[in-house]
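Appendix C reproduces, verbatim, an entry submitted by the partner laboratory led by Prof. M.T., so that reviewers can inspect both the input and the predicted structure.
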Amino acid sequence: MAISDKATQLFNKCTIYSDAASIVDAYDLPKDLGFNRRMERMADSHRKEFLAKRAKLREDLIFAEEERQRLRAMVSMCQLVRLYLLDDNFPAAHSNIVQSFELTRQVSEHTELLFFMHDVLKEYSNKCFGELSKAQQIVRQSAGPLAEVHLNILHELLEEDARNADVLEWMGRRYNEKLDFDTAFRYVNMVYV
């Protein structure tokens, strides 16, 4: 088994969610012998307050565990995109890009993920260029699903910073791949003006 296959297998395991409540009950707030002894010796007036605080703490810990698992899954999917691109598994890479964006909850996470995916797709753009044959690119007017996803990412990045030269240059490249030369020229021209 190659290292990339093992890494793919382990990152896929990281995308599987576990029951957060059972993790909290088993590791953070176990009802063990010490807890039972404490409950036996505690006065009724103190017990109600103690159990209310414990229930509140349990809810907070469950939320924190769910958030930790969500972030772990999102980061794992980002790394899987890179591994699938290395293995020329473009459909799996595309699927993980979509799933990782579905896991974002905050604008800052979404923006950070946009920049990460742009860097990854930029890094592997020469490898993804052969995703579709030239004849299929002409018929579909597209360089393939990954190129279209990259184009969508670039449009979102352009909304945030309309003067980013790197984004404008890559917009020109991606539109050039789509054989939309007028639009490509317009974006590339914006870089040098």
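The radius of gyration is 24 Å. Additional entries are available on request from the coordinating office.
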